[in-house]
Each structure stands twice: as structure tokens, then as C-alpha cells.
Amino acid sequence: MKNILYTLFALFFLASCAKSEGESVDVRELNQEFISAWNARDSDKVISMMAEDVQFLQGEVIYRGKSEVSDKWVRETMGTIADLKTYPVSSGTDTQIAYEAGTFSVDVLPVSPGEPRGLGEGNFMLLWKKSSDGNWKLSYAQLEGHPVVARN
């Protein structure tokens, strides 16, 4: 009888472990953590959330790899915008991949004193992949922005 109980316990334990490894992620939580780090200007955290082979696409410009994306997107852009907000329209998840797409808005900071703030808007898509260590990493980011307009 004890052997049956031990066997059932072992099967239950293994089944619960397998299930937790195969569960999908809440992509909105991932994106909110990313956006919160961006708005806090925490470039180290933003960069730590990216995969080594991350790609960033904006218009016809594409950056590949964590080093290039970190330098040319994160570090060059972070100080020029504020109050990034996203408005999801579509999302999907499974056990290895998650995405969210929709529209975004952001305050574009003036380059010189006396200039107005701008409003940037457009479409976005963020794609996350589960890494071999079980952590979710940003694998692909695409932004399609409209021309910036002056804020009143």
C-alpha cells in the first residue's frame, strides 16, 4: 500500500512539474515590466530583458543582436522620450512564445530649450521567447511611428 502511495505521489509531483514548465506567460505583465523600466529610464533592466539575438525594426531600419539594439535603440532613444504607453489590440501566448501588438503613444522631449514637446504615436509589436534557462526575453520589437506632432 505504501508503495502505491509513494508511486502516486511521485506521479502527481512529476505531472505538476511538467505542467508548470509548459504553462504560457502573461504577456501583458512582461510588456508592463518592460515599459515601466523604460519609463523609469532603467536601461540596464531594459537591456537585461532582451535576448542575445534580439531584433529591432523601425521603418526600414533594423538592428540585430543585443549589443547593437542596446546601443542604437535603447541608449540613443531612452533620453529623448517620456511616458511611453501602449494600447494592446492583439496578443497571443503559448509555452515558448508570446506577443502583443497594438498602438503606442509617447512624449517626445524637446531638443532645445523653448521648443514644445512632441507627441509620437504609432503601431508596435513585441515578441517574447522563453530562453533555455526558463526566463522570457524580448526577441523582436517593431515600431511604426507616425510623424511627431507638437503638443499644445
Automatic annotation (TrEMBL):
Annotated ranges, domain DUF4440: 27-138
Record's keyword annotation contains Transferase: no
Keyword Isomerase in record: yes
Keywords per UniProt: Isomerase, Signal
Signal peptide as annotated in the record: 1-18
InterPro entries: DUF4440, NTF2-like_dom_sf
GO molecular function (one): isomerase activity
Domain of life: Bacteria
Protein name as it appears in the record: Ketosteroid isomerase homolog
